[in-house]
């Protein structure tokens, strides 16, 4: 069962509905008990880094998630802020992240004529094939809304790069732990292809 | 940035309606069903406007908004009844990507500034409705029911300076008429601001959409009736051109020139 975590950081309806549209069984976990039957986990999130970590802590999510992802090897996909908190830390906050990806999050650099947050449709370039790019359309564009970006320790973990003034990491994968900076659930058929790849 | 073609859905009593010159709302269908139809098309963005909220002095129906946003597989902008930063925060929490301010922005430009600072100007859209009486174009608020003394050009500049990320300019006279955009006013406003201008009101054909972008300088063409009615105001058919259509009229770049079809 694909399990979407509802940690109270934004509307997860479109993620749930996109999986349903794909004909996949998807369920929402509003508390840690909900992840026991998970075969794949989605960690969404919009908002601030520390707020999300506090929400995980307060909801008692961290130990059960550690068990599911680290001990049982259940694949996880972090989306947007959910991607950033898979890393160790962020310039946006003081709390440590989950630390499952060897990465940290920084503020996007300002460039003349380019706005922050980076908001809108943009392309991704895959430096290497990955489980998330199996059906990537060469013309694919994804929808971004963010002011911070992930910096990977190792290039080999990077699966998508995007340019907004600077080139930044828009997707990472290390084994079964994956994250994307954009919103597949708001990227219509391109996002649907990516979620289909994640879930198969 | 490639030009955009944006469906605008009007909400009244939780239903999608379509107006004619901002009056005579005609029932079209359930918003969730219509959004689902657009999900299957190549729509990059959708605008949803509650046309009753401000007039009825009520806050948006955030629960209904969350329901619609949860069915929407593309970014969504919402307007109607947003009067404070807290209202906007709730709209973002309900899952919208942009907020659209109209009456509140014209009456309190400071709110636009505060919203742009808090949420980023890219997520703050100001919608200006205007009608032309005896050759004078004037902005109207509260779903077109209150005329102001502002002309659209100066109002748009003011909104840009206040922090708006985009302007939607709607001709009340053309609304629902499918008789073509007001190219003259669109051009006048587009030439006087640096932020993207979304033209609305009057689209009746893809050629109209192409013309407002190419001839009047709009960054995007928005439409209601054109995507909803088939032929006249009686036959409802939710449609959206496919990318081949858009390439044919030059609304999006054909990225693969060698494969350009010979039509």
Radius of gyration of chain A: 15 Å
Helical proportion of chain B, percent range: 25-40%
Unreliable spans of chain B: 255-263
Radius of gyration from the alpha-carbon trace of chain B, in angstroms:
17 Å
Main sheet specs of chain A: 7 strands, mixed
β-strand percent of chain B reads 25-35%
Largest sheet of chain B: 8 strands, parallel, barrel
How much of the sequence of chain A is in beta strands? Answer: 25-35%
Order of helices and strands of chain A: EHEEHHEHEEEEEEEEH
The overall average pLDDT of chain A, rounded, is 95
Order the strands across the largest sheet of chain A as they lie in space.
Answer: 2-1-3-4-12-11-10
Q: Given the structure, what is the number of helices of chain A?
A: 5
Alpha-beta classification of chain B: alpha/beta
Low-confidence stretches of chain A: none
Query: On the 0-100 scale, what is the average pLDDT of chain B?
Result: 91
Morphology of chain A: globular
Distance between the termini of chain B: 25 Å
Number of strands of chain A: 12
Give a structural overview.
The complex is a heterodimer of chains A (200) and B (263). Helices cover 22% and strands 30% of the residues of chain A. The relative contact order of chain A is 0.17. With 200 residues, chain A is of the alpha/beta class. Chain A has helices at residues 13-21, 49-58, 62-71, 81-84, 188-198, and strands at 2-5, 26-29, 40-43, 76-79, 89-90, 103-107, 118-123, 141-146, 148-152, 158-164, 166-174, 177-180. Chain B is of the alpha/beta class. Helices cover 31% and strands 25% of the residues of chain B. Chain B contains 10 helices and 12 strands. Chain B has helices spanning 31-39, 62-70, 85-93, 103-107, 109-119, 152-162, 183-190, 206-214, 225-228, 243-248, and strands at 4-12, 15-20, 23-29, 46-50, 76-79, 98-101, 124-133, 136-141, 146-147, 166-171, 197-200, 220-223. In chain B, helix 5 packs parallel to helix 6. Chain B is globular and about 40 Å long. The two termini of chain B are 25 Å apart. Mean pLDDT of chain B is 91; it is low at 255-263. The interface between A and B is medium-sized, with 27 and 24 residues.
